[in-house]
Amino acid sequence: MKNFRKNKTFIIFILTIFLSITSGPLFAGGNVDKTDEKIQSSQNIEAKYVFLFIGDGMSMAQVNSAEIFANSLSNQDIQIQKLNFTRFPVSGLTTTYDASSFITDSASSATAMASGNKTLSGVINMDTTKTVPFKLITEYASDKGKKIGIISTVSLDHATPAAFYAKAASRSDYYGIAKQIVNSGFDYFAGGGFAQPKGKEKDQTDIITILTDAGYTYVNSRENFDALKSGDEKIIAVNSFLQDSAAMPYDIDRSPDDLSLADYTRKGIELLSKDPEGFFMMVESGKIDWACHANDAGASIRDLIAFDQAISEALAFAKQHPMETLIVVTGDHETGGMTIGFAGTKYTTSFNNIKAQKMSFTAFNTKILGPYKAATPKNKAKLADLLPGLKDAFGLDFESLTAFQKEQLELAFQRSMGNEMVRAVEEDQYLLYGGYEPFTVKITQLANQNAGIGWTSYSHTGVPVATFAMGAGEELFAGYYDNTEIFQKLADAMNISTAN
After folding, report:
1. Which of 11, 220, 279, 448 is least surrounded, with the fewest CB atoms within 10 Å of its CB?
2. What is the rounded CA–CA span in Å between residue 98 and residue 259?
3. How many H-runs (helices) and E-runs (strands) does the chain carry?
4. Residue 247 and residue 153 in contact, taking contact as beta carbons nearer than 8 Å
C-alpha cells in the first residue's frame, strides 16, 4: 500500500510538471493555446480580397441533400460527395432571428450581416423605428479603397443584394432601392434585373436610364458581357433571359445561352482584382430559397450545386492569393423546413428519383400546365392529359403512385383547373399548397416524398444555418454565434475599425 501511495504521489508530481510546461489542458495537449495563437496571428493578416457567398434559404438540410445528390450521380453507395465549401477548414453555426421574430425574413437577415444590427422583417438597413440608417460593411470596405461587387441570381433590387448597397423602410420599394445603386457608387452589379424598372405604377424614368446617365455601363447579352475586361468600371450586367420576377432562370432550366452564377463571379474577379486595395464581393444564390418555398427539392439542389461552382471560381483566385483572400459561405435562413426523411419512406431515401427531374416548378407552370389551362375548359380537363408531361418533367410515373397519392394528385389537378366541386377554404388551400399552383406543388411534394425528402412549411424556419470560412481570418468564423457577428468578423478580417 505504501509503494502504491508513493507511486501515486510521483505520478501526480509528474503530471503537475507536464501541465505547467504545456500550459494547456491535459487532454487537449496544449491545443487550446495553439488555437488562440493561430486566431491572433490570423487576425493580424489583413484580408485584401473578401468573398461573402450567401445561399438564400440554405441550412444544413439543403447542403446535405446536395451532397447526397452529387454522390448519387456517380454511385449508389451510402456516402456523400462533399462540396467545395463543405471542405473548408473552419465552420460554425449561426442564429438568424431578427428583432420581431425567431423566424427572420431575407431583409432583416441580410441587414444583420451587412450592418451588424437587428431590425424588423421587411426592413433593409434601418432600425426598428425605420428612421435611423445603418452603415454597411460594403461602405466601410469602400471607404478603405476596396472595389465592391454585388451578384445575385434574383433581381438586383431584391432584399439580399439590396442590403449590401441600400437602406429602405420597406423591401418592397424596389424602384427606390434600385436608384440607390447610383448613390453607392459601387463597381459591379450582376445577375438578375430589376423588379420594378419603371416604378410600381410604371410611370417613372427607367432605372436603366438613371444608371447609365450616372456613368454605369449596362450589358445584357453574353457577347457584351464576355467583352468586358479588367479596367472597365461601373458595370451592370444582367442575364438576357429573366425567368420570373426579373430573376435569372433556375439552374435546372438554364440554357447554354444563359450566363451562370459562376460566370458572373469569374467576371467580377477579373474586373475588380487589379485594384491595389482589393475588393469585397457578395454573391447570392437567391433561388435556392424560391425553390424551397415551393418545396421543389430538385430545383433547389441544382441551384445549390451551381452556387458551389461559383465558389470554385473564388477558390481558383484564392490559390493565386492564398495569404490575402478570405472566402465565407453562409445562409441567411432556412426555407421550407426541408428534411432528409419522410414518414412514408421511413429510413429509406432514393435520391435517384431527383435525377429524373428536368425542369423547375416554374418552368412546368410556364411550359406545360399554363398552356393546358389556357386551352382547356375546366369541364373538359382530365388529369390523364397531363400524365405524359408529368413523367417527362419530373420522372413521376402515375401508375407507380399509391392510391392515396393518386387521389391527392387528382384533387390538386381539379383545384388548379378551378373546379367548384372541390374548392378549398383558404386555410385548407394554404396548408396543402401554399400560395402555389396546387397541381404543380403537389407534383414537387410527391416527387420529393418518393425520394425521402420532407417539408414542413412554404415559408422560412428559425433553425440556425452553417457558416464556412477559408483564408485570411478564417478562425474568426468558428463557433456558435449570431448573424450580426458576421459583420464584425468581416470587418476584423479586413482590419477595419467600425467604432463610431
Report:
1. 11
2. 34
3. 20, 14
4. yes
Q: What is the pLDDT of residues 153-168, one digit of tens each?
A: 999 999 999 999 999 9
> What does the buried/exposed string (b/e) look like for 328-344 if buried means 16 or more CB atoms within 10 Å of the residue's CB?
bbbbbbbbbbbebebee
Using an 8 Å Cβ cutoff, are 340 and 67 in contact? no
Residue 400 DSSP class: G
Q: What are phi and psi of 285, to 5 degrees?
A: -100, 95
Return the closest-CA partner of residue 211 out of 244, 240, 245, 186: 186
Question: For cell 424556419, what's the residue?
Answer: 461
* Residue boundaries of the structural domains of the chain: 2-42, 49-338+461-493, 348-454
Please check whether residue 223 is in contact with residue 271, taking contact to mean a CB–CB distance below 8 angstroms: no
Question: What are the φ and ψ backbone dihedral angles of 157, each rounded to 5 degrees?
Answer: -100, 10
Report pLDDT for 45: 81
CATH for the stretch 49-338+461-493:
3.40.720.10
Reference 338, options 57, 53, 56, 54; nearest CA is 57
pTM reported for the whole predicted model: 0.90
Written as nine digits, the cell of 60 is 444544413
**Beta carbons of 106 and 334 less than 8 angstroms apart:** no
pLDDT at 35 over 50: no
Tell me: pLDDT of 114 over 90: yes
Cα–Cα distance for residue pair 273/178, rounded to 1 Å: 25
Cell of 471: 483564408
